[in-house]
Specification:
- This is ThuA domain-containing protein.
- InterPro entries: Class_I_gatase-like (IPR029062), ThuA-like (IPR029010).
- The chain is an alpha/beta fold.
- Helix content is about 25%, strand content about 30%.
- The protein is built from 5 helices and 11 strands.
- The strands form 2 sheets. Strands 2-1-3-4-11-10-9-6-7 form a 9-stranded mixed β-sheet, with helices on both faces. Strands 5-8 form a two-stranded antiparallel sheet.
- The longest helix is centred in the N-terminal third of the chain and has 14 residues.
- The chain is globular.
- It starts with a strand and ends with a helix.
- The model has no long low-confidence stretch (mean pLDDT about 95).
């Protein structure tokens, strides 16, 4: 059975703006409906620390966390940083969601694994509301452009190696919202997919958004 582990925004990785318990439950429901066995971690740093042993790695790592507001490091311990580095070097697939692009700022490998990140004092989002999602490329073929209520992350920093699948328009610019990445690992490669949507659970009630996530999971797992 294919396993997925969700790192959810609990403890110091929670924040006042994101209902992580609800969004993690929504993505868990989607994954279970797609045939995966899903667990959700209660302690992000402890779980990352366990990744120093490859036996703890799931088939799919799903990251749905925020930036710790306590001013401490992120990841929060040496063991957690080492575990995240070991997991990234191991070539496992990654599905990262929404505010996860703001987190793990003290990990040199996180941005490389994600394919981009939120940049303080540069990145922003307009107020929560109707978002017109513009799809492109072969990945979303057959799915029409769609509208949903969500946050629209803008001015993210992205690697030139990512393939963008969805954008939105803000201030005359098209901003990437979903991308895939085949990242180099040793002599091979590993797969990542980032979805900047998903501020709340309602985002995952959009049939177009759900279908894109299912396709992302299929691609990630080969």
């Amino acid at each position: 059975m294919t396993t997925a582990l969700i790192l959810s925004g609990t403890g110091r990785y929670a924040d006042p703006w994101h209902p992580f318990a609800e969004t993690s439950a929504a993505i868990a429901d989607l994954l279970r409906g797609h045939g995966l066995t899903v667990e959700t971690a209660d302690d992000v740093d402890a779980t990352l620390g366990s990744f120093r042993d490859s036996a703890a790695w799931p088939d799919l790592l799903v990251v749905n966390v925020g930036l710790p507001r306590d001013g401490g490091t992120s990841p929060g311990t040496d063991a957690a940083r080492d575990g995240l580095d070991a997991w990234e070097a191991g070539g496992c697939p990654l599905l990262a969601l929404h505010s996860s692009a703001t987190s793990f700022v003290d990990s040199e490998s996180w941005e490389a694994a994600l394919g981009g990140r939120w940049v303080r004092d540069v990145s922003m989002h307009p107020e929560y509301g109707a978002a017109n999602i513009l799809l492109e490329g072969s990945f979303p073929v057959g799915i029409p452009d769609f509208t949903l209520d969500d946050e629209r992350y803008s001015w993210l920093r992205t690697s030139p190696d990512v393939i963008v699948h969805a954008r939105h328009e803000h201030e005359g610019h098209l901003h990437p919202l979903m991308w895939s990445l085949e990242r180099p690992v040793g002599t091979g490669s590993a797969r990542s997919f980032y979805d900047a949507l998903g501020h709340d659970a309602a985002s995952y009630s959009s049939p177009e958004h759900r279908e894109l996530m299912k396709r992302a999971v299929d691609w990630l797992l080969g």
